Amino acid sequence: MTYQLNFPALWPYLPELLAGLLTTVELTAMATLMGVALGICGAAIRSGKTTLLSRIWGLYVEAVRNTPFVVQLFFIVFGLPSLGWKLTAGQAALLAMVINLGAYSTEIIRAGIQVTPKGQWEAGRVLGFSRSQTFLRIVLPPSLQRIYPALVSQCIIVMLGSSVVSQVSFEELTFAANLIQSRTFLSFEVYLVTTLFYLLLSVLMRQLLLAAGRRFLGSQG
């Protein structure tokens, strides 16, 4: 028995796939910006003196890094409403991705900060900068330059993990693919096209982020 491929049957559903792809791009863009910003804040907290806040942040990082993303998502979607905090599927998906990327990027950025020569901190004091000004103007840029390729890879991992949010009925690319498959029963064709979309998105995202790194940070990645 041979299987007859029927890609033309997917043509009427192309707008739905593209709409799902656009939603994935928008979700990823917001999660990347907010997650990296959260990671920078976390790295600054974790790189200073040991305080109650740094310990709490450390617990948050360990909790996220040692639990599945899907469990984190379900906790936000189904657990938080029990505490009176109700979110839409889109809000829950974005929050879960930001929290996840924030934890991982905290440790990635902190690794770059830890190898920063102490002389850079001293140079900031000599120039009359506060600790926060020294961090933002002198320490952070070269630290980001060192770890930028790893940070880009983590952002792409989070983008690929966004496919999980289809489990809470958020209408991104995987949700659209599942819906089309249930209507057409063309599993091979639907998921092959979806795989190619994710592959294309990963390649483009990597190239765009690396180009931005070379432009603004002088990264060689």
What's the structural blueprint in terms of helices and strands?
Layout: H1 14-47, H2 52-65, H3 69-79, H4 89-114, H5 118-126, H6 131-161, H7 173-184, H8 187-216
Helix pairs in contact: 1-2, 1-4, 1-6, 1-7, 2-4, 3-4, 4-6, 5-6, 6-8, 7-8
Explained architecture:
The structure is a single chain. This protein has 221 residues and is mainly α. The protein is built from 8 helices and no strands. It has one domain: Orthogonal Bundle (MetI-like fold). Helix 1 runs antiparallel to helix 7 and helix 5 packs across helix 6. The longest helix is centred in the first third of the chain and has 34 residues. The chain is elongated and about 75 Å long. The mean pLDDT is 92.
Write a concise keyword list for the protein shown above.
221 residues, mainly alpha, 76% helix, elongated
Low-confidence stretches: none
Q: How many strands, which pairing sense, and closed or not: the largest β-sheet?
A: none
CATH H-level homologous superfamily name: MetI-like
Radius of gyration: 21 Å
Bulk shape: elongated
Distance between the termini: 49 Å
**Beta-strand content estimate:** under 5%
Judged by helices, strands and strand pairing, the structural class is mainly alpha
Overall structural domain count: 1
Q: Care to count the β-strands?
A: 0
- How many separate helices? 8
Mean pLDDT: 92
What's the helical proportion of residues? Answer: over 70%
Q: What is the CATH-assigned architecture?
A: Orthogonal Bundle
Order of helices and strands: HHHHHHHH
What is the name of the CATH topology? MetI-like fold
Briefly, what CATH class?
Mainly Alpha
Keywords: Amino-acid transport, Cell inner membrane, Cell membrane, Membrane, Transmembrane, Transmembrane helix, Transport
Domain ABC transmembrane type-1: 21-209
Protein name: L-cystine transport system permease protein tcyB
Family: Belongs to the binding-protein-dependent transport system permease family. HisMQ subfamily.
